[in-house]
Amino acid sequence: MDKSHWTQDLFPPTFHLTRAEVDSSAKTKKETLDTSPQTRIQAIYKNVKKEYDEEVWNARQKGTQVGDSLKDFREAKKTVNKINCLEKGCDKSCQENLSIADSELWDSREIEILRKVFLKSRTENMKLKIELQSVKEEIKKVSEILKCKEEDYNETDEKFKKSQRAFHNLQLENKLLKKEMKVLDRRNKSLQEELLAIKDTNNKLRKEKNHERRHFLKEQTLRRDVEVALNKVLIQIRTKDTAEVETLKINYELQLKKLNESLTEAKEELEKEKEDHEQTRKALDHLRYHFASLPSKPNITTSSPNDDILSSLQIF
């Protein structure tokens, strides 16, 4: 593609003034204020013409930029050509040629430019269609990738939220652990102080233990001596007690023998008494049966002495 736009070829600029010419016109404008009335009128005419040319130029630029109709542009161009022709003093034939050229909407040069631009735009349009199709396919692929990325982002966002919640929980746990750590530090200090006190008491107790141990060893030696003496005494006592025990044992056996003999005698006497009692009971039963079998005498009211004896008897 060319660097210049096709509108510049189709509508060439008509303003040919340079910066120096513009500055010189400003100076002449300032000089006309001090000249005669005729030159002043001429300067006013030139300024009006210049402002009109600028308005036409701005209108043309505006038409080419925002897309105004070419007919309005042609009318403006026609007026500019007439003014230029009047300034140069052209004859009627030149004015007629200008009017004929201006009456046509498009000339051959402009149509050729439009044809070239149309062909170029057509080829560019085909290229753009192909590029558009490829861009659509790329957009489709990119949209699919974007969808996957969005799903990944949602998953990552969910993981991030979970991580944030976990981090928040860890921060809370960290705060609690710091508080517990402070409590444990204070407790550790108190325990260290207690440990120092325990160490002091332990040293004191160790000293006392050593002292007591020495005392215990002395007592142990004394105890051994006492045990040896006691064993000697016990041996002596046992030798004496054995003789006494033997005598007591013999006496006990003799007394036990006597008691057994007296017990056997008492048992024999008891057996004899039981036999006598059994015989007496049997005799008493015979007497009762005998008196019960005797005939009764109702007229006799006096009781015999045998009845009193029988009534007083009891069976054991």
Describe the secondary structure blueprint for this structure:
Elements: H1 6-10, H2 19-32, H3 37-66, H4 70-88, H5 92-103, H6 108-293, H7 305-312
Keywords: Coiled coil
Main features:
mainly alpha; about 325 residues; elongated
Polypeptide structure, described:
The protein has 316 residues and is an all-alpha fold. 87% of the residues lie in helices and 0% in strands. The protein has helices at 6-10, 19-32, 37-66, 70-88, 92-103, 108-293, 305-312.
Work out the radius of gyration: 79 Å
Q: Name the helix and strand elements from N-terminus to C-terminus, one letter apiece.
A: HHHHHHH
Note the total helix count: 7
**N/C terminus separation:** 164 Å
Tell me briefly what this model is.
With 316 residues, this protein is an all-alpha fold. The protein has helices spanning 6-10, 19-32, 37-66, 70-88, 92-103, 108-293, 305-312. The chain is elongated and about 205 Å long.
